[in-house]
Amino acid sequence: MIHSTSLEVLAPASSIEHVEAAINAGADAIYIGIKGLSARPDNWSFSLTEAQEIVNLVHRSNCKIYFAVNAEIGEYNTKDVQELLGHSTCTSCDALILSDWGVIRLASDMNMGVPLHASTLLGVYNIPTIRVLEEMGVTRVIFNTNLLIHQMAELSRSVPSMSYEIISYGGLCFNDNRRCRLPHYISNGNYCVGCKDNYRYVNDQGETQTFSIGFADIDLTPIISQYVSIGVSSFKIEGRTRSAEYISHSTSILRKAVDNYLASEKKHISYYYI
Amino acid sequence: MKKILVGLQKWTPNELEHVLSYPNEQVSGIILGDPFCEYHMFQHGDFDLIEFAEKAKTVGKVVVYQTPVYLTHPIFDKTLSIIQYLEKKKVCDWILAQDVGLIHLCSKNKTTIPICWSVWGYNRSNFISYNLVNFLMSIGIQGIEINNPSWGEHVSCLNLQVFLNGYAPTVVSFRQTCYVESVYKTHCNNGDLCQKSMFIIQDIRRNQTLTINGYVLEMNIPPKLIQSETPPDWYTIHLQTSDRLGDLLKKVSENEPSKP
Question: Residue A185: how many CB atoms within 10 A of its CB?
Fold first, then answer.
């Protein structure tokens, strides 16, 4: 059964301008990174004081706000995570996106009253893993970018009590996003990844071939219905490090696609009941 | 004396015979199972896995089964069947796993073979925290594989067997879809393509060379030998072939830390 009325357009933000752009373009929810604990550099993340302002702004617009705590967690930054989870700003957000099993257990034990989302970086591939997450109180799984659509369908069909999210617009990791060590760097003010660089291969005949091993940006908007049909309810835009114009544009496109889908579904239901 | 476990990129009857010919004091056991590909490591797939495990046990070696990284269905079910069969035949001593669902299910009721958290389970920097280790212990691991020796002392205090990943290729990246198939835009034909096509690519921007090795991108440089002040319970070494095993064993024993 598709509960499509609860479909969500989830936009990224790394500045107030981003947040405003996303809200104005029709985002249902916004995700941000917290300085020191985000998978993006600190200048694209917020301090807890700044995050509280964002929470207030987003809530005033009847949107939701999620905090991404998806940096690599070692013993050196565990204390920062504990402080974040115990902070009042953290409990005022609408969900935490977590990418580390230890942090999920910690947040689960703290019983914070904030929904927990399993990040795409966690690497969830099968039903027993989703069951473990469910036991720990996680309410949403963000599908790993390595999964194929039929594999996602099997997971969502088997554990329908979980909600599912997918990266549907923007950059998509071609490699295993949790464990890829291709360089991630800043170039001309933009955040770049090594898989989008050009590589050179010389074959046995001495012919040179130049190629990129990464994907170009993806746009799932033309096939959103397929993902809704397999149980995806949240459509995320990648791009915390991009411009406000990009966020406005991508959110509008995704909003339109979701609204079109909902309108067509409504039409279908009304025909059904005539 | 280190208890050394040897993994090879491809196991053949000849390679197995060569590795098993080393006395148990030098090679304590072998690691069988490719984390990514069902065609890459064995010519006859899981049949070879079982047969080689049996052979290793007959000469008193420890057998470790490395489970696949991408445990989507039906690979998950197949892996579980292999584990249960290995247990029934009494030919496996440890399971190396990195999938939380598999570990949880196995430790609950599917096998009594002890499970070790594998290095494939970490994030890109191989960071460890006590929160992570405690979580993994709560789902049933009894060992932990590390490639940062400084963690050996910390985890051994937690009553976990420590496997130090002492010699292995520098993996840069990997994914669920084979790189070789992607580049050639064709099916690997049960490993035929992969057998002849380990190719080198060059990162133009950084002038680095990488090896595309099936599902894995590796740095095209020889691995470094990782030593530890605190002797681990197990020391794992991964090689392309067993040709260099003798030299490597010599190096490892030369660098053996003195017992306190």
Answer: 14
